[in-house]
Design goal:
By secondary structure, the protein is of the alpha/beta class. It has two domains: about 220 residues, 3-Layer(aba) Sandwich (Rossmann fold); about 110 residues, DNA Methylase, subunit A, domain 2 (DNA Methylase, Chain A, domain 2). It has nine helices and twelve strands. The strands form four sheets. The protein has a six-stranded mixed β-sheet, with helices on both faces. A two-stranded parallel ribbon has the order 6-8. Strand 3, helix 3 and strand 4 form a beta-alpha-beta unit. Helix 1 packs across helix 9 and helix 2 packs across helix 7. The chain is globular and about 65 Å long. It starts with a strand and ends with a strand.
């Protein structure tokens, strides 16, 4: 049985991927400071976790997944960086290394880190390289690649850096990932969405729509794209520019936002998952559900994680002999 620890766990995309892959696993713990994310996770997986920080945490998993905060690496943010001395939200990634160090002889078989592509930019890559160096010093072999959800069946142009660090001298081969043809976004859409709360009626947003205002000027320079076959990256909010894209009504000259359910589907979650979260966070009459949008936008696409776990399973990386730990050299050591 594979034991997994989710740090900055959000709504549990890694656990959902393991379930979908039918991989025998045990979620030995989950760490997330956002109270709403914890409530949603508990609703989806019938757990009773409480909000907690990663600072000073200690446990012994086989798999450690950390989708640490990306805001200060993001090109859409203030670019505050994530050095271990910066004390920004993104610098919490260094707590993961402290957790591994505090495990002593025991170390996770592999560590998966997901983050925005902005971490590879020239003013941020020093932090990324420092992370790789530190992981190497802890006995890991690092591999990383930029993966887009559209290559794994999901019609969302969401590119993220995935770093897979395997204990010892085994490298992860990203070419072994099983790619899938992108499904059309219509498969993810709700039929006949006419609720006024999803309709775009504010002039400042209407004037940003490319086909509505093809030659924008001034404050309308940044435009909104009408979704044809796939959307852009789903973020915390859809009612801003830029966003993941908007839907054009075929029978009327109207445009609408993606619904909360559609965003969850486009992150790889089922309607059953969404309904469990909706029960925990009911939508107010006449209002869009900001909590459900935010929880989806801050997650990891489940289908990408499925491909990673399947590749690890085929390479037999998921199996770890009982009563063993790895030295920093990557050699097996028997615990007597």
């Amino acid at each position: 049985m594979v034991q997994i620890l989710e740090l900055f766990g959000g709504i549990g995309a890694p656990r959902k991927a393991l379930i979908n892959c039918n991989i025998n696993h045990k979620a030995i713990d989950y760490v997330e400071i956002n109270e709403q994310a914890v409530r949603a996770y508990n609703a989806l997986y019938d757990n009773r976790y409480k909000p907690q920080t990663v600072v000073g945490y200690n446990l012994k998993p086989d798999i450690l997944v950390h989708g640490s905060p990306c805001q200060d690496y993001s090109r859409a943010g203030k670019r505050l960086g994530g050095n271990d001395e910066d004390k920004t939200r993104s610098s919490l990634m260094w707590e993961t290394l402290s957790i591994i160090e505090n495990m002593g002889n025991w170390k996770p078989t592999y560590v998966i880190w997901e983050n925005v592509t902005g971490v590879l930019d020239k003013d941020m890559i020093h932090s990324f390289n420092k992370y790789l160096t530190r992981m190497t010093e802890l006995g890991y072999t690092n591999s990383f690649d930029v993966l887009s959800a559209i290559d794994f069946g999901i019609p969302q142009k969401r590119e993220r850096v995935f770093t897979i660090s395997i204990l010892g001298d085994r490298a992860f081969d990203f070419s072994k990932l099983e790619r899938k043809p992108m499904r059309h976004i219509r498969e993810f859409m709700e039929p006949n969405v006419t609720d006024p709360k999803y309709m775009i009626t504010v002039p400042s947003m209407l004037n940003r729509i490319k086909e509505f205002n093809p030659q924008p000027t001034g404050t309308y320079k940044r435009q909104l794209d009408v979704i044809e076959s796939c959307c852009w990256t789903i973020t915390e909010r859809q009612d801003r520019c830029p966003n993941a894209g908007i839907i054009r009504h075929e029978d009327k000259p109207l445009y609408r936002y993606l619904t909360e359910r559609e965003c969850w589907r486009l992150m790889g979650f089922s309607d059953e998952d969404f309904n469990a979260a909706l029960k925990e966070f009911p939508t107010k009459e006449g209002k869009r559900n900001a909590t459900l949008y935010r929880l989806a936008g801050n997650s990891i696409v489940v289908d990408v994680l499925e491909a990673i776990f399947k590749a690890l399973q085929k390479a037999e990386f998921l199996e770890r002999p009982e009563n063993t730990v790895f030295k920093n050299t990557g050699q097996l050591q028997l615990i007597c």
